[in-house]
Amino acid sequence: MSDDPVIRVRVIAATLASLRAFIEETQPDLGCRPAARRTGTGFVTDLYLPESRLAAARTARSAVNVDLTVVENTTEIGLARQAEVGRGNRFAARGALPRGLGRKE
């Protein structure tokens, strides 16, 4: 696993063109189903960047037209959620509801 955590960032722009320009320049991960949502003052979307690229995204030429807000460290949250997952066969106890992440066998 990489030591570079992935950060979820909310990007707000006054125009769709400004939002698109920032995305084209920084090439972030937009997740499975990217969507720009209209707000009262423009457009907003969430994207994912490795922490090492976040500073570069903030100084990108197109960043002057957007507002970037760090929402969460998704790597840290994912690791915390995986910690609750037990070992062994989660279907072994009849009648018990499975918990946590499954393993494809």
What letter string, H or E per element, gives the SSE order?
EHEEHEH
* Uncertain stretches: none
Mean pLDDT: 87
Strand content: 15-25%
Helicity range: 25-40%
Morphology: elongated
What this model shows, in words?
This protein is an alpha+beta fold. The protein has one domain (6-83): ACT domain (Alpha-Beta Plaits), CATH 3.30.70. The protein has 3 helices and 4 strands. The protein has helices spanning 16-26, 51-58, 74-83, and strands spanning 6-13, 37-38, 43-50, 66-73. A 4-stranded antiparallel sheet has the order 2-3-1-4. The radius of gyration is 18 Å and the shape is elongated. It starts with 5 loop residues before the first strand and ends in a 22-residue tail after the last helix.
Blueprint (SSEs and pairs):
Blueprint: E1 6-13, H1 16-26, E2 37-38, E3 43-50, H2 51-58, E4 66-73, H3 74-83
Antiparallel strand pairs: 1-3, 1-4, 2-3
List keywords for this structure.
single chain, 105 residues, alpha+beta, Alpha-Beta Plaits, four-stranded antiparallel sheet, 3 helices, 4 strands, 28% helix
Question: What's a quick, concise take on this entry?
Answer:
With 105 residues, this protein is of the alpha+beta class.
